[in-house]
Design a protein that fits this description.
By secondary structure, the protein is mainly alpha-helical. It is built from 3 helices and 4 strands. The two termini are 15 Å apart.
Length: 100
């Protein structure tokens, strides 16, 4: 049995997230300055679980940013930075489930 079948991250089954993430991976290029870029289109079936999970992660990050206001390490991420950080956090969460 696949280890991802019943595992979830950010409210979505990992097996439902993987097709979208693999599409992103296949579309990714890295510029000379190290910036990663991807242009892709997902089917509704592959895109919906990924979008929901990423929105949940972004909400978590936005709360972290809000709670940092007035502190020593104030986070002032742009939407694009938060979206990129959300993708990284989602992939990390999936990786952590794989090692459980």
């Amino acid at each position: 049995m696949n280890i991802y079948c019943k595992s979830t991250v950010y409210g979505e089954r990992i097996e439902d997230l993987l097709p979208g993430l693999l599409t992103i991976q296949d579309a990714m290029t890295i510029d000379a300055d190290g910036m990663c870029r991807a242009s892709f289109t997902l089917t509704p079936e592959d895109g919906a679980p990924l979008k929901r999970a990423l929105m949940r992660v972004e909400a978590e990050l936005l709360i972290e940013d809000a709670e940092s206001i007035g502190g020593r390490h104030h986070l002032n991420r742009t939407y694009g930075q938060r979206a990129a950080d959300a993708l990284v956090r989602l992939v990390q969460a999936i990786g952590e489930r794989a090692t459980d």
